[in-house]
Amino acid sequence: QQQVKQSPQSLIVQKGGISIINCAYENTAFDYFPWYQQFPGKGPALLIAIRPDVSEKKEGRFTISFNKSAKQFSLHIMDSQPGDSATYFCAAKDDKIIFGKGTRLHILP
Amino acid sequence: NAGVTQTPKFQVLKTGQSMTLQCAQDMNHEYMSWYRQDPGMGLRLIHYSVGAGITDQGEVPNGYNVSRSTTEDFPLRLLSAAPSQTSVYFCASSYGRLGNTIYFGEGSWLTVV
To answer: Which of A44, A53, A55, A58 could form a disulfide with A36 if both were Cys (CB 3.0 to 4.6 A apart)?
Structure first.
């Protein structure tokens, strides 16, 4: 059973547009929700993260929105740039970290 | 400060062979884990450890063994490799059981023929 469901699998956005990736979870014991960014041939790297007592967190062009009652959270990338083209993973943590299946984002120049 | 170091980077195995993927971290992290990454499947947790001498199974543990004799090292063993174990393997670590930022190694590309 998939503990963290991520959508869409792939996403194409025009430069300057908003990229939105969504995740949903079932386990209410999860207490930390990070997003990771991965470039080809590299390991994932932490992008931004949120705790369930906060509804939104913003760092530069990246924003996480968190809906505890719906058990959903999303990543918004404002003013998307070609350098943002990568695979993005949402994740959730209790005593271990479980990842979603990833979203391949391509920003058109 | 090397971070998380994985070896080898690339490996080709024959079905039935055994091998060990090495992982070492120099950040004194208590939590270490192994993931495999396959197309369309994301990152799936194989095994993890919350400290020296303690290991536990993740989502896809079958066919893999781990041990944690020191804080720094967390090797992943394939006892009898199968083509289904062809994948990219990532080792990761974080500080403490409640550690948040997880640091990944560069990955090990394994092909089983």
So the answer is: A44
Nearest CA among B36, B50, B43 for reference residue B78 = B36
What is the maximal distance between C-alpha atoms in chain A?
Answer: 41
CA distance A100 to chain B (A): 6
Residues 6 or more apart whose Cβ sits within 8 Å of residue A53: none
Segment A83-101 mean pLDDT: 92
Contact B42 A32 (CB under 8 A): no
> What confidence score (pLDDT) does residue B98 get?
55
Calculate ∠ Cα A21-B4-B34, nearest 5°. Answer: 65
Has residue B1 got a pLDDT over 70? no
Spatial CA neighbour of A3 closest among A46, A43, A47, A33: A33
